[in-house]
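Thread title: Can someone regenerate the structure for this chain?

I was given the following input by a collaborator and told the matching structure tokens would be attached. They weren't. Posting the sequence so someone can regenerate them.
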Amino acid sequence: MPLFPRLSGACALLLVLLAPCAALAEPSAIYLVRHAEKAAEGKDPDLTPQGRQRAQNIAAMLARTGIAHVFSTPTKRTRQSAQPLAQATGSTVQLYDPKTPQALVAQVKTLSRPVLVVGHSNTLSELVRLFGGEPGTDIADNEYDRLYQIIPGRDATVTTVLLTSLPASGTAP
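Best answer:
Regenerated them for you:
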């Protein structure tokens, strides 16, 4: 048998065998959190000292989860909330547009390692739903401690775990 038909047959077989693996390229866990406490003034405020402490606490809490990708909206408060974990894991904060959540979900679903997404009180519930999770009640304007863990199952099920980040006044373990 000539070489070309054998090689093309082997390549076709390899593609058939690897196709299911490509379908499994979803993160083992997706963590979603609202930015930490922000200053009251300004259109794009920084985090308050309490917010900076909460961001450090979230980083300490998630440091051992294997997070390889950190996503944030372009605002200062979300980037500042994401930065401590990105620094701890050696990753960079990747920006996403909160007006196109489907694009973020599609991008995240191509990844294979755990992910952190930092958003806003008015965007997290929709993101949780788009990832297949259950967001629960709306996030209040003064609520900064809600942390979602979305766990995709092999059988297309999704488990939503609602966690609480450490209080801004508490210190990380």
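Residues 3-24 have pLDDT under 50 and may be disordered.
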